[in-house]
Design goal:
By secondary structure, this protein is mostly helical. About 80% of the residues lie in helices and about 0% in strands. It has one domain. The two termini are about 30 Å apart.
């Protein structure tokens, strides 16, 4: 009998795959870092200031990291959708939360790498002294956790899964109101396959 893999094992496998793909292709993190540095250059000359402080400095840094994170999220999920990863997860005997957890963990790793590049660049462009960097690290870690736990992307992912060929609930509970639609879609798909075969 084949042993069903646990959610943690599936999460580790998906996360390892995502990190290997990123190491080979270098698509997400360099694009995020380039975006952040370019945004800092634009702010430097757009605001026409050599140094920033207070709320303006925090706004520039956090807005830049947030938009760079959106870049990373899109690359993480679009590749999975285009290459049929959602279909594979649905067909595999694993919980769907493994995919979401692996993507969220990969995003946190990407953000930590981005911040290792973006924070020194920010300090170079906008800070007179480096004394403000240590307290900023805690704020950035909280922002990373907030982005990881944020529900917006999860809602977008669920909406995309519902619209596509997959109807998977991440909590493995039946969705109210969707069972009939799912059954109807399954019957239609079975009739189409029977028509092709027979």
């Amino acid at each position: 009998m084949i042993r069903r893999p646990s959610t943690v094992d599936a999460l580790r496998a998906i996360l390892a795959k995502d990190l290997r793909v990123e190491l080979r292709t270098l698509q997400s993190v360099p694009a995020m870092a380039l975006f952040a540095v370019t945004t800092f250059v634009l702010f430097r000359y757009g605001l026409d200031r050599k140094s920033l402080s207070g709320g303006l400095a925090a706004g520039v840094l956090l807005a830049t990291i947030l938009f760079a994170a959106i870049l990373g999220v899109n690359r993480l999920f679009v590749a999975e959708r285009d290459e049929g990863g959602f279909d594979a997860i649905r067909l595999a005997p694993v919980d769907g939360t493994a995919l979401l957890g692996a993507k969220a963990t990969a995003l946190v790793i990407y953000l930590l790498l981005l911040e290792a590049i973006a924070v020194p660049a920010f300090a170079l462009f906008f800070l007179d002294t480096w004394s403000g960097i240590p307290p900023l690290i805690g704020v950035l870690l909280l922002a990373d956790v907030g982005l990881r736990l944020g529900g917006r992307r999860r809602l977008d992912l669920r909406r995309g899964l519902r619209r596509g060929r997959i109807s998977m609930n991440f909590t493995n509970r039946p969705r109210k109101g969707h069972q009939k639609a799912d059954q109807k879609q399954t019957r239609r798909r079975n009739r189409f396959h029977a028509h092709l075969v027979g």
